[in-house]
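How a chain folds remains the central question behind the approach discussed here. In the encoding step, the backbone of a single protein was reduced to a row of integers, each denoting a local shape. We regard such an encoding as a compact summary of how the chain folds. The sequence in question and its structure tokens are set out directly beneath this paragraph:

___
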Amino acid sequence: MVPYPFGLEDSDGCSKNSSYMLTRNHNFTPPILFFGNIPILTISVENATAIVHVYTAYTCYDESGVESEFNQFLNLADWPFTISSALNTFMAIGCDTLALLSYEDNQLGTGCFSTCDNSTLIGDRTQITQVVEPCSDFGCCQTKIPEGLKYLEIHLSSMSNHSDILVSNPCDYAFLTAGPNANLVNGLNNNTVSSEIVLDWTVGDTTCEEVTSICGPNANCINSKYSSGYRCSCMQGYTGNPFTSEGCQGSIHTIYLIFLCIFQLLTLLMACLPENRNEYPCKGKCENTPGNYTCHCSFGYGGDVSKSIKKTQLEKATDNFDARKLLGEGGNGCVYKGVVDKTEIAVKKSKVKDQDKIEQFLHEVDIVSKINHKNVVKLLGVCLETKVPLLVYEFVSNGTLFHHIHGNSQRILHSWSRCLRIAAETARALEYMHSSAYPPIIHRDVKTANILLDATYTAKVADFGASKLIPMGQTIGPDTKGQGTMGYLDPEYLQTGELTVKSDVYGFGVVLMELLSKQKPVFKVESGKMVGIVKVFTSALEDNQLDRVLKIGVANEDEMEQVHEVAELAVKCVAMPSTHRPTMTEVADILDGLTKEYRNLQIKE
């Protein structure tokens, strides 16, 4: 089914206008949808994206020089699409390869250069599509692309026409691809190669402010960041097509929860009365009001809830958000240190004042308010007097695990017992989110920069701006936003758009590898090539050369045996497919068992 605003050319009146009209080519089995000459695989109205196939640029060589070549030209000027900069990567494969991507009528461009020797095998056009993740080893390069592109050209060149590597590498390739781990496929035409890319799309050439009731019922209007037009998105708790007059409808699960809440309210209403407050400690609910918010008891509870903090208090606490108070920056905002009522706090402030950021910050409040765990950073309060909410967290004094691994304070990680405890505490926090929180939560950005250490080096998981509540069925998808951090992102999530708890398991596996090897998730080797820690670590384990990548402080024989067990666990966490990965409960149980085993070893000594 083709979702509105798109429609088929032979279905009169089904599309918004001719720009959204697709054709169905019946020469293929099953028939394939096209816009122009580009095959379209899926359209998401929820994310306003489309996944399409585009031909890969290539140059093949023989003894006399260039044997055949194809340069990619992509022009979306007549269509409502732009090339997603957030979800696509420019990539080249070859051992003597200069790949150039030009745009803005060839006035601007980017590119990358790849080199290797004849020990690296890169096949011809019939062979390259049979290789899983052809850019996972030597002989490839990649770079980001700019925002809002509607036109581009891709060209390839070689320094020596592959004269020294003709047998091992007869062809070069350059292409856009969704995600960092490319899989090339056979094109629709004979002897061609294609890749999947993600396109963003918008509706119209107006803004949300210029037209009222522009989206369907129970839907939000969001202005495009990179081009004219807007997109619509269902409100939280609703599903459907936000672009149609029917709009978004409440799910059966949402309706069930409403009836459940009414039932609880009727049966437990008396529990919020003053005389019952000591018996029922509060786990409160908050509602937004203009410029503020009000809190009340959850059904069956009484007492105090998260504190409403004044803007003036936070400005005074942070010296008006002085740069010297800055603790760090993330994708959603900056974090400042402050002091309120002799309590050290961390204030998270959005960097952008748009509706998306406001909703994302309120979403973070909603997520964190559902978590009560000693290894998760605690939300102390919220300030809603500003255009974008300010979130006030407990201050965690010893910074991030990333800082201690890669900074000048690695000494605290010289103790294997401390490394093991940090890993076990982080695992238990994620296990709680997956298995004990209701509804369950996928963190979605598990990385060492989001693991904080307090004064006693206890781990606390932070930054829930990208997190998702899990609906019935334990899967969220398809989701082509691809949120997360490169190097920690689950390749299966990038390929399928299906977000599950196993995506967090993958990120945690990378964290373990980083903790054990003291290498960043993506790092540069002696040749100058950027490689991924997952590939290097996994290969070392498979080749029985794990000690080559491990960087542990002083450790005895028993401790090194545990280090190897954790290394094997890390590799299991990044297994493909994701069904082969353990759950966070299994991971946490293994690490807890090793922690208890370590204590017993110390007692015996």
